[in-house]
Each structure stands twice: as structure tokens, then as C-alpha cells.
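[User]
Protein folding is very new to me. Any chance you could explain this protein sequence and its C-alpha cells? I have pasted everything here:
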Amino acid sequence: MFDILDKYKVQDHFFLKPEQDLQKECNAPADKEGVFVVYALKRGRIELIYIGHSGKIQKDGTFSPREKGLSGLKNEIINGQRFGKKPAHIAWKKQMIRENIEVLDIYWYVTIDTGYADSPEVLQRNILGQHQDIFGVSPKWNKSV
């Protein structure tokens, strides 16, 4: 859906069912920064529900984690604050059960690596803007953040 993400060579995805442990299933790198896109499968339909990022590039070109002590895609996906400031590994499980979501498909992309130094924060805003332009709304879990 987002061609802008195709250029990133270090990328992958993983599935998460409500009964699974996000900490065990997450295959994102702990030492790299980037963006992630979360799709939900529910009653045979797929919906993009969340677009997130880890870290940001400062005006002086240096990198800083999104939250103190919380850096890396893996850490942001697992421990980033979601619904009511709960870590994702707790909040997503509860939300999946609440919404009867069968599985999440979480795609991640390293945007700061050899050959690339694209700000994850700026890239997330661009992708959210594209989603807004296409569908007229933000992904539903982004609205709840």
C-alpha cells in the first residue's frame, strides 16, 4: 500500500494471535530504528489499524530514542505506550480480544541504516497523511494513542 517503504532493504513482518506473547513473536531488530505498520485480520477482512515509529532524528542530525530508555524497533513494538499508556504487549492483547481480532500482521522497516538515514517520525507522519488522503481518517488505533 505504501510504495515509499519498498526502498528499505532491512524489513520483515510477523504474526501475532491474541493468545501469543508479543515479546516472543516479535522479530524486529532491537538495535535499529524505523517504522512499523499493523494490519488486523477479522472475519476474513484485513484492515490497517496502526502506524508507529521508533526514535527520531534531531535538527542537528543526531538520533534520539522516542522515549528515554526505549530505543529500537523491537522495544517500541513491544513496550511502546498504547491505549491508556500501557505497554503494547499488554494493551494489544486486550484490544485484540475486545475487537475480536483473529491475528495481527506487523510489518517493520529499518529506516536508519547503511545508505538510509530517514527520520522514522517524519516517515510515520507521511504514511499517516497518505492513509488520511486515501481513506479520509487515521488508522483506528492511531486515533486512540
